[in-house]
Amino acid sequence: xxxxIAGKRALVCGASxxxxxxxxxxxxxxxxxxxxxxxxxxALEATAATLRAAHxxxxxxxxxxxxxxxxxxxxxxxxxxxxxxxxxxxxxxPGLWSDWSRxxxxxxxxxxxxxxxxxxxxxxxxxxxxxxxxxxxxxxxSVKAPIAQLGLxxxxxxxxxxxxxxxxxxxxxxxxxxxxLLPGIHATDRADALDAGVVAAEGLTLAQxxxxxxxxxxxxxxxxAADFGATCAFLCSQHAGYIxxxxxxxxGGAINATL
Length: 259
Prior knowledge:
Layout: E1 9-12, H1 18-29, E2 33-38, H2 41-55, E3 59-63, H3 69-79, E4 84-87, H4 102-130, E5 133-138, H5 151-171, E6 176-183, H6 189-202, H7 206-215, H8 225-235, E7 247-250
Parallel strand pairs: 1-2, 1-4, 2-3, 4-5, 5-6, 6-7
Helix pairs in contact: 1-2, 1-8, 4-5, 6-7
């Protein structure tokens, strides 16, 4: 299927590896010019080189911490007028409710709620003026079914979900869609870190921890960055203009819910 977005320009955050890289690769395969961001310059430049070689698209890199005002300013200055925005930031660490301070919550909110909102506020006016735009926020399946040890993430990402629910309906009439893409377990560094925590806590091998987690997923496996990227690219396509303010699970069926 031709997604109809060749020649568009996209900003993809957290794109040096994992799910962000999967989204960037899927968009590049459709002929989208990219501005990609991550904190680590070495991995980011390696990703950019791979995307240019594989897909022949223009790729601009901005190594900066997008959760800071200075980092956002750098990224937005390099991005210019974009048609597609994919927001993405690593999740806060796991823990217990009794361990988290106000400062822990502020950091989580800055990274996983306020930063995506700030990026949308910067990008939406231009999209509205051009009467076309796509925003995909990479959040978490925890907004559908909270994960007890990820309370910081549960709180921050649910706040973002509430913002998107209203805002998406305010801008849809201008041909701009905003949706959230909710990953379950994918084979990324984040899954490795969570699995390592299980290994340390329960004395399992890493293989045992992964097998146990995979057994609880109806698809029987962890997702891949390519799986996730393909879904993201469709939400950014010409064909997704009637999908507005939705929370799309990409979790292999792990969340057991009717609605």
